[in-house]
Amino acid sequence: MSGGVVLASALFFHRAVLSSNVFIARDILRVYYPLHAYWAQRVRSGAFPDWYPFDGLGQPFAGMVVSGAFHPLNLTYLALPLGAALKVNTVLCFPVAFLGVYALARRFGAQVPPAVLGALLFAFSGCLVSSTNNVLYLMAAATVPWALWGADRFLERPGWPRASAAGALAALVLLAGDIQAFALTLLLFVALVVCRQARWWLAGTLVGSALAASLVQLDPTWQVLSQARPGQQTLAEVTAWSTHPLRLLELVLGPAFARGPNDPVGTAIATDLLDTSQGTLWSDSLYIGLPAVFLALCGAWVYRRSRLGRTLFVCTALLLALALGRRAGLATLAYHLVPFWHAFRYPEKWMAYVSLGVSLGAVGGLQALLEKPSLRPWAGRVLGICGLLSLAFGAEEQRLGRVGRWVADRIENAALRPEVASHVSGELARGAIITAVLACLVAAAFLWARHPQLLAWVPAVCSFLGLFWLNEPQYALGLPDLLELTSPFPATVHGTPWRVLYLGGAHRAPIDSTLSAMDRWALGAVSILEPVTPALEGVEAANTYLPAVSARVFDLMDDERAWVLERAGLFSVRYLSIAEENEAEVARSGKRVIDSLPTFGYFLFEDPAVVPRAYLARPVCVDGAAQSLAAVRTRSFLRGVEAVVECRHPFAASVGSLGEVVSVASKPERVAVQVRAHASAVLVLNDAFYAGWKATVDGAETPILAANHAVRAVAVEPGTHEVIFTYRTPGGRAAACLTLLFLLGGLVASARKAMPGRDTRPAAVRT
């Protein structure tokens, strides 16, 4: 079985396996390559990365979760080149997902063919294939079935070894970087206890085991949540990328709305029709197939009176309601009633687990048809009718394009409407015809197949063909050379202590290039310093792209233009990558152009009034965060000379020269500053104010004060001093030790249980 699924995965991802090209779309380039490159570089140097300085004035590395700092597959980034390692990790997720669903289905009594069908449907579903552009969600989704499998083993025979194994598998969901999927896994543990009619204390044991095994990641995450932006998101931010009900057609007809990166047609569809507010789709495909959906509905009907059938149906329906986001109301209700829900954004993420529910439902449907021959003629006739209707719809859409024109009428840009209509009609017609043919083949097997093996395997084969034809084109690859690309802009700023800031606009790519659309996008993203790509070249950026960015830093960016034009220079942002439509406005603010990329329509500006990374300032005391934010917004202090400081007691007034910063030696978790102060002052370090940092002045610990709302400062007296800032993840070492002790305890218990001659039967049986 393992060999077959590896072969199927290699076939499905043949474009990746048989070429040197790498996964590069969207956040793969902008987030995961920079994060994993940083992790590998730090670990190779013998240090664990606690702090990440390349985004949002710095933020905790482990606490941001998406870094996946503790996942064991990170070891591949030490053994392989960056692009190859991420390719291995990405492709490996699909056999892992397949085997997880297969093992779970077999535990619930499914025969081999239905279990294989469910495994194929989930592993190669549109949601998982689309997640190749966001690998942490792919890794988490591939692990969830294994966590459920481990939990079910524990419910069958409770004990520490199986509890620790289930907890470890659940922890891998979180360690992949997806706290939302981890929370779902804990809820599914409870649902599994309901299915098995087990005692409630077993649910507590499972959840407790998962939490204990995850402490190494949970504790840093909890420390960050109260300080970072995700814990304070608005309802509109949380429900962005809600699944539009129109996209549910894709479950059976295939992807119809997605286009390439920065394609104006795809942007218009996503914005004007599907109302994503992001200009693109979260998942380019939701396709799982007409036969799969039909069999899932059959399974729901046949097993409607069983506890397992009802639980699976209810869980899938609730997940679908969550995926619809603001259009169904359940996500809004959860936002208001569940405190930590503020950190869960983008409801369309739940569609991956809707696909899991449909896949397991299809297992039940096919199992029922194999066990109850009297149902096959009915199922064959209904599925055949559905297939013929799909065929008629595809032919009609290909000939008249009614749905395509209906979609085009809702696009604001009239010039794009003909292309929108052509694209949507063409994709709908193609998908409807393919799924119709496959549905009719499966229906024919139900009606006329006499050989049991033919009847059992036709649905799996036809489903895989449909998934291959319609979902395989949805993963995007790019040239590996793009990971080694040096932007002309960093050539100007590389090696300086200053930060860069990106203000985007229309994304222009070279139209005469022989590169693919994906390669042109990636070339542009690196060249114009899109977040977080400058980190690949060791350049710090002041954008707020990663999730652990300080809420204080984010407060200053509530008005993007005010941040770029007025505030950024206060925080050591000297260079700005600006789209040409914003060039005149930025020039009027006093900044000057020092470089340009006409091909992409971007200019590199320099701010001559930038404030240094570390400087001595006269403190202007305020009571708290609200007052300091108001002062920075209104510029009610002399920047670079004065600093707004949140201090309990006013500082002694000082006049004249304050002194100078002699040197700054900066490493991610340690910044040493030599100062020569002529009067009492504060040393301001333009790095994010965050719990976990400690400061010493000449070896004596001193309080760190919030300065200019978002950065750090310490008080210094006249004289020459060495000020050292150090960072350690709060509670990180203790949490890691507790996780390790829990897992080692499980291993010891397993070893003792497996000792030769040890009677592991319950006491009642032994007597």
Could you describe the 3D structure shown?
- With 767 residues, the chain is of the alpha+beta class.
- It folds into three domains: 61-477, no CATH class; 480-606, no CATH class; 614-727, Immunoglobulin-like, CATH 2.60.40.
- The protein is 51% helix and 13% strand.
- It contains 30 helices and 18 strands.
- It has a five-stranded mixed beta sheet with strand order 10-9-13-17-16. Strands 11-12-18-14-15 form a five-stranded antiparallel beta sheet, with no helix packed on it. It has a four-stranded mixed beta sheet with strand order 5-6-8-7.
- The chain starts with a helix and ends with a helix.
Give the percentage of residues in beta strands.
5-15%
* Count of separate structural domains: 3
Q: Strands of the largest sheet, in order across it?
A: 10-9-13-17-16
Number of helices: 30
Shape: globular
Q: Give the biggest sheet.
A: 5 strands, mixed
Please give the share of residues in helix. 40-55%
User: How far from one another are the termini?
Assistant: 41 Å
